[in-house]
Amino acid sequence: MKRRREDGTSRRLFVGNLSLETKAEGLRAAFERFGKVVDAHVPDDRGFGFVTLESPAEAEAAKAATVEVDGRRLRVSDARQSTRHVWGRPDLEDVEEEVSVEAAKPNFGLSGALAKDEATGNVYKGHVLKFTEPEDAAKPRQRWRIYVFKDDKIAETLYVHRQSAFLVGRIKEICDVLTMHPSCSGQHAVIQFRDRHLDEDGARPYVMDLESTNGTFLNGDRLDPARYVELKHKDVLTFASSSREYVIIKSDGS
Question: pLDDT higher for 237 or 57?
Fold first, then answer.
């Protein structure tokens, strides 16, 4: 499909918290009350989309309003402007071309905090961890990463193939992935690699909400607490009311 280029005055908006049932037509209809919709795009099964309005004034009105589609209150913000096309997050296929370069970069602060303290069992730095790694926990053989998006820009890259588990939350002393939004819990969720399939791919990533107050969301749907759910290539995680999106990427894309 040929993508529409910007005309210099239109404004592209990022729309989050979409139902997986919402299509581009529904998104377009919801924003037509603000003005002329130049373009609307909803990637399949991602829980977000993009709308381009004809003028900055129309875009500002949309951002200031409460917009609901399919029973969900949408998160509307400015999207990153691209010189190549109006809609769409930076192509993840393009990002994949940088794998060999990124693999040599430092760890961006991932601390390996979930390594057990030999003296205290499941207590680490004075905090009782809210979960214990399962018996099938394993460090993955394949390269997995998480691209953290803020306002449709890559804010951080997390190299999650370097250990078997990553604690997500607000407690700086013990969490590997910090989510400092006030709606997030101290120990919010865990990303756990498990070797359950006994195939050549090795350990695969799972996510479990640690009974957080405001929930963990996978592709827009809230997860049941205290249950592991397998993560797939290009899945999108969000935590509580934080606007940051965590896109799961497998190096070979399969």
Answer: 237
Q: At residue 157, what is the residue type?
A: T
Two structure tokens written together for 122:
């499941």
pLDDT band of residue 196 (cuts 50, 70, 90) is confident
**Is pLDDT above 80 for 194?**
yes
In terms of domains, do 65 and 106 share one? no
H or E, element range at 27:
helix 24-31
CA-to-CA dists, residue 77 to 14, 38, 80, 82, 92, angstroms: 5, 17, 10, 15, 21
Contact of 188 with 239, CB cutoff 8 Å: yes
* Structural domain count of the chain: 2
- The phi and psi torsions of 216 (rounded to 5 degrees) equal -115, 135
pTM (2 d.p.):
0.56
Among 27, 45, 78, identify where a domain stops: 78
CA dist 209 → 6, 18, 108, 127, 226 (Å): 40, 20, 23, 18, 6
Domain that holds residue 239: 92-250
Instruction: Compute CA 48 distance to the chain's CA centroid, rounded to the nearest angstrom.
Output: 10
pLDDT at 243: 93
Provide the mean pLDDT of the chain: 79
234 assigned to some structural domain = yes
Q: Tell me the C-alpha distance between 109 and 111, whole Å.
A: 6
Higher pLDDT, 5 or 10: 10
- Specify the DSSP element, H or E, that contains 148: strand 144-150
The reply to whether 1 falls in a domain is no
